[in-house]
Amino acid sequence: MESPEEINGHSEAKDETKVVECAVKEESSECTAKEKSIESAVKAIATESVVEEQTTESADKDEACDLILDSPSVEFTIIHNKDKYTVSMPLLSTIAQLKDKLVDMIGVPSKMQKIMIKGLAKDDQTLESLNVSSSSKIMVVGAKLQDIVAVSVANVEEESGSSKSGSSVKEPLCKKKLHLKVLERGIPDDALVGILNIKDPLPPHPLSGMLNKHGGKVRLTFKLEVDQLWIGTKERTQKVAMNTIRHVVSEPIEGHEEYHIVGFQLGTTEASRYWVYWVPAQYVDSIKEAIFGG
Fold this sequence. Notes:
- With 294 residues, the chain is of the alpha+beta class.
- Helix content is 39%, strand content 24%.
- The strands form 2 sheets. The protein has a 7-stranded antiparallel sheet with strand order 8-7-6-5-11-10-9, sandwiched between helices. A 4-stranded mixed sheet has the order 2-1-4-3.
- The protein starts with a helix and ends with a helix.
């Protein structure tokens, strides 16, 4: 049996253990509380920083808007499809802001507008940087939304009619007799270099070195400042208003996929298509964008 002293010793040891455990728990609780306090402080600082940044950005935007509004205004002329409009805006206004202002005036979505001021103006340029004055006449290129919709509907109906009346398997353009007789002559000696899987903007000079359905030389000039496509041959130059072009079809030439056959539909039916052969592939998308916007 244990003596009274031994029993008392065990009891005291247990009490000491409990005291140590309590101290550890208290210390742990204090550490947790401190960690939570530090975490809350960090979150508060981060939140304050974000709020300050947002406030600064908002203030900068307000300041920029104030600068624009406080800048001198200029009244100039906008020309779209031979219609003229008088517009007044602060000189520090950007081309993007001008486009937004013109949407209700000319009925052309801002993303489909091309503003021509000594060439194509960029959205972030200001009227002041482009030297716009009261004598300026600014050309705007772009088709109205309802015109684009009308053309799209007509094309869908036309394609639907052709699919019902024709074969279920579409014959490539380059296999059709009309085109084959031109393609059999081969790539023209003066053809521009065609590049696959690349989209290039239209060059500042005419696209040349191509053929029409008669095998004659043809060049395409995109006169964006007057919204016209000039189709030039040895005999004459046909000036076509871009908003009268109903559709543009294109297809790679088999065996020479770096070149396309392109058809410009100038009337209501497929018979009105003006065919151009050996168009460099890298320019096809830019040709469509120049005509229909994009």
